Amino acid sequence: MIPFNFEYYKPSSIHEAVQLFQRLDTEEKQPIYYSGGTEIISLARINILYTKAIIDIKSIPECNVLHLEKDQLVLGACLPLTEIEESNFYPLLTKTIQEIADRTARNKITIGGNICGQIFYREAILPFLISNSQVVIAGIHGIKTMPIQQVFHQHLHLKKGEFLVQMITEKADLHLPFISIKKRQQWDTGYPLITVTAAKKPSSSFIENSSNQSLTNYERIQIAFSGLNPFPYRSEEIERDLNQQHLSLEQKVDLATSHLPEPILDDFEGSAQYRKFVMKNTLQHVLSTLEVQ
Amino acid sequence: METIGKSIIRKEALDKVTGTAKYTSDHLSLPMLHAKMVISPYAHANITHIDLSEAWKIPGVRAILAGEKFPLTGEEIRDRPPIAYDKVRYCGEVVAVIVADSPAIAKRASSLIKVNYEPLPVVNSPNQAYENNAPVVHENIDSYERIKNVYPEVNTNIANRTKIRKGDMELGWQRTEIVVEADFSFSPSDHAAMETRCVIAEIREDETVVITSSSQSPFMIKKLLHVYFHIDIGKIVVNVPLVGGAYGGKASVQLELIAYLASKAVHGRKVKILNSREEDLITSPVHIGLDATIKLGCSRDGVLQAAEILYLFDGGAYSDKAVDISRAGAVDCTGPYRINNIQCDALCMYTNHPYAAPFRGFGHSEVMFVFERTMDMLAKKLKMDPIELRLINAIKPGDTTPTQLAVNKSNVGNVSECILKLKKIMNWDEGSIKQVSNTKVRSKGICCTWKNSTIDPDASSGVTLTFNPDGSINIISGVVEIGTGTKSVLAQMLAEKLKMDVRQIYVQMEVNTKSTPDHWKTVSSRGSFMAGRALLNAADDIIRQLKDLTACILRCSKVDLEVGLGKVYLKDTPDIFLNIKDICYGYMYPNGNAIGGQIIGRGTYIQRRVTYLDPETGAGNPGPEWTVAAQGIELEFDLLDYTYNVIRAATVVDVGKVLNEKTALGQIIGGMSMGISFAGRETFQFDQAGRILNPQLRTYRPLRYGEHPKYEVEFVETPVIDGPYGARSAGEHGLIGMPAALANSLSAAAEVDLNQLPLIPELIWKTKEGAVDDSL
Amino acid sequence: MSLSEGMKHQFYLNVNQEERSVVISPSDILLSVLREQLGLTGSKPGCYNGDCGACTIDINGTPIKSCLMLAIEAIDKNITTIEGLKDTPIQKSFVEHFAFQCGYCTPGFIMNCNALIQKHPNASDEVIEEWLESNICRCTGYKEIEEAVKSVLHSNK
């Protein structure tokens, strides 16, 4: 039950939505965009979120796109997680979002809502962080498409009045060898201690030795985390550690664990020390699994 | 037996699968007002100021209750203001109540009430409460009104101390050759019934107070409203429709008091109050926590010689039912064994935690966790098979209990048979631990349990039976249908007794204290026993009336008559009979003369020869009978990350007599599930300041589908002679041993003593790896 | 569509194949409207937070937690509540298998099971688990619920 009233708008175009936002903002209605709405409803109930106007973007056609084009996958922000799971164009994404909340809730939770949520796990972003993905953002000045690395730092950096329209992922990245693990204490649903998604991507680099230069092909591990800190992220430093070809698996993991960004979350899901322990085990599992794939 | 034992489908089954079953919050009415509580974010603080001005500005607010001194409440010690006054003593305590036209208005206004607090030092565990220099939660416990048999200790946090002094401790320790000592602890958790508590209250023009509540204790609500607020007891009517899960949590009288005060504040208008999930978890009373210290000794042959135990129950901020829970913990302070020398102090401690309600098992799963874990530690030290150790010591007819009562076959059942059957189910002879891969072991753990029911010595139950003109019968009993199916089992008993088709027996599901005979409380698994005995008496009553009338009409002696199959007939000439339907509303002769009149059956039952405990030694007869069980858990444990899967859970329980097989299985399995959940994952997480960090079902996590193990249940049937058809209580007993069995199994797998709950991997990791490891 | 704050608006909801008139504010939760305006109290409040599943209903064939949906989002959708199910195999199966005790979580469980059976008549154990872990039952140990749903699914095979 929401203890306050708000105005409700359901625009049918991007243009209408951003215009509405601007007007409502001028009227000091603290408007917010509404997609699945599950988080908005639950936070409003306990007075953590307040607004005088919501703009439901579920009728905007671009936000409901789900198709695999010639070389990219386009996912509208308003797609419920289960719809994306069922289409299964991007298995790593399917595996990752399947662990969010529970299935009935995922019939309502949308991918855009999860990525833009206040609840800090935002695990749906992880597969995009480790692939060549772009973000389509709408604002009063029109629509822009940007590489995810440029706009996602801990959270999606949206300017006032902007909203997420689509996620676009390179087709070549959809079927890389991957692993996605969500670790919880002792239960099968709900928030993680840590969530790790990783993929192995073909890469090449020049190796120099005394006599000549050679182009070496190898597979680079790309990895992103949620639950370790109060935001999801991909760490270049940890990736460098894990991709040190000359190190043993244990050495890689030890090195990576020494580079975890502090402070580690210490909350009712688990202590910081325990999270580190789980992280170390999980990284070992990730590496050994990807090695055999 | 025709009907007893069969899996007859419960009477309200169709209502429950079609959405027509009505629970308290399903009662809607237009003129009804709605109340919303403001609760304390602090565990211990003085209330320095409450500002209501903004809340009053919201249109539709009809009353605000705050800062007012209402009569103190509490079942044994009257220490609890129904709405906090001057001070809050736990996180979640009610500070103010708003009554408004709609739930949304009440909620909006509640968020505008500003309360200023001055935090006080917090008592965050029973151990801390027990320390000499601990802050005192109640300064003036001596000034509180209390019942006769409760002994609060002034200037301490001890609300009550129950002493068990049996045998000669000195002798016991002399004979002891192997001894183990251990400490245990776990924090409060919750019942988390799916229906949050809900109450509707109104005060009519003639001052009749009408309460509708999701409660296990309609008759206790009536009594306590009278005691606390001096309302004429005849002017209190309590209705209880179906209840959506209770597990003891709805035996406490709490929200009803607030609803009554709220209605009074709006001149008796009907007011509904529905707990939010957060309030239901932390504001209403919770499942008790415990700190314990135990020393247990045996001779080299495994015979238990002495037990010295200190139980510090986490009663929370107010004593209410916690005193009684701690007393029950003292009564069955050991496992079901013959132990000649016992010293136990069971203390009910005040802390700054939410206060405790009864919880399925009433102190027993808590105490059995401590004792049965210690038994495994002893077995290990003794190098004896834990099953063997238990078999050697299992209590038998002629032995005495901790309260020095000599037991017999009828009142204690057969522990040894339970153990032997469990041994077989668990394939114990194949070994209790097995490495199944490089990183995984399979491990088994077992325990024994017992439980008597320590309800009031004079607790009673009554049943009325009325006929319908077709000879079918209505059962009217004060048992609340909380999910246990007890009322349907009563119908089965009556069908058996009267040799009737159970479909010809109707059950009034709802309780109305004005028209329903009193049933003390629907708790302690006493429903089938007490109401069953009352029902059988009521059946005898109608049989007597039917025979009297028939004897007159058929001109025969009533001893020659038999009742059954809808008839009253001559035993030796069954074709001479009268149909019950033709006489249950009186018999009319062909000329119009009538005799008899409608037949109404009445039956009652009151507990027999139960005593209070001796305050110095605990000696006494604590309750009617024990139900004993042996339980086990098999799990697969990951040696690397300390996670585990419970693969199967087994229970062998001596229920005396199975009355309805699937209902009985449902009770046992449901209890096991709840016990595994409590032991493996459920706890409130308190921060340093006593605040609760996980008051929602997304952070407080009961077992879900798919996380359940395979359940195996077998029954032993040693009849209890005075039970209905020999049946013992069974509603709680699936739960009681699960924490101990799980802990024993995990301790064996992890090769470390796990003496805390819940048994999450982090606890195992912490226990295993000891001190903080910074090298990670 | 737009609805202004604090104003009540009249709409029609298609509930259990009937057009039902409701008067709602934009912030009204579907669960509350179903219960309080339409008297459809079979859908139960257990947390108002999407955690317990007791309020699960069917929207266009998909189970949805009605406490996580605004009533206005349900306009033009086919809403089925427990009151809309009559003599379905899953209801019968719940009765026969003793798959409930207090009955409070039952409507939500049945709505979820019913949608599962429609969508995945041959659901594997994994799929059943994925769907049913959305609901909490505090009375049973889930064994009887498992038996009830599997008996309907297997009779489809």
TrEMBL record, chain A:
This is FAD binding domain-containing protein. InterPro entries: CO_DH_flav_C_dom_sf, Diverse_Substr_Oxidored, FAD-bd_PCMH, FAD-bd_PCMH-like_sf, FAD-bd_PCMH_sub1, FAD-bd_PCMH_sub2, Mopterin_DH_FAD-bd. Keywords: FAD, Flavoprotein, Oxidoreductase. It comes from the Bacteria. Residues 1-174 form the FAD-binding PCMH-type domain. Pfam families: FAD_binding_5 (PF00941). The keyword Iron does not apply.
Automatic annotation (TrEMBL), chain B:
Residues 18-121 form the Aldehyde oxidase/xanthine dehydrogenase a/b hammerhead domain. Gene3D superfamilies: Aldehyde oxidase/xanthine dehydrogenase, a/b hammerhead, Aldehyde oxidase/xanthine dehydrogenase, molybdopterin binding domain. InterPro entries: Ald_Oxase/Xan_DH_a/b (IPR000674), Ald_Oxase/Xan_DH_a/b_sf (IPR036856), Ald_Oxase/xanthine_DH-like (IPR016208), AldOxase/xan_DH_MoCoBD1 (IPR008274), AldOxase/xan_DH_MoCoBD2 (IPR046867), AldOxase/xan_DH_Mopterin-bd_sf (IPR037165). Keywords: Molybdenum, Oxidoreductase. SMART domains: Ald_Xan_dh_C. This is Xanthine dehydrogenase family protein molybdopterin-binding subunit.
UniProtKB/TrEMBL annotation, chain C:
This is (2Fe-2S)-binding protein. It comes from Chengkuizengella axinellae. InterPro entries: 2Fe-2S-bd (IPR002888), 2Fe-2S-bd_dom_sf (IPR036884), 2Fe-2S_ferredoxin-like_sf (IPR036010), 2Fe-2S_ferredoxin-type (IPR001041), 2Fe2S_fd_BS (IPR006058), Beta-grasp_dom_sf (IPR012675), Diverse_Oxidoreductases (IPR051452). SUPFAM superfamilies: 2Fe-2S ferredoxin-like, CO dehydrogenase ISP C-domain like. PANTHER family: OXIDOREDUCTASE WITH IRON-SULFUR SUBUNIT, XANTHINE DEHYDROGENASE SUBUNIT E-RELATED. Residues 9-85 form the 2Fe-2S ferredoxin-type domain. Keywords: 2Fe-2S, Iron, Iron-sulfur, Metal-binding, Oxidoreductase.
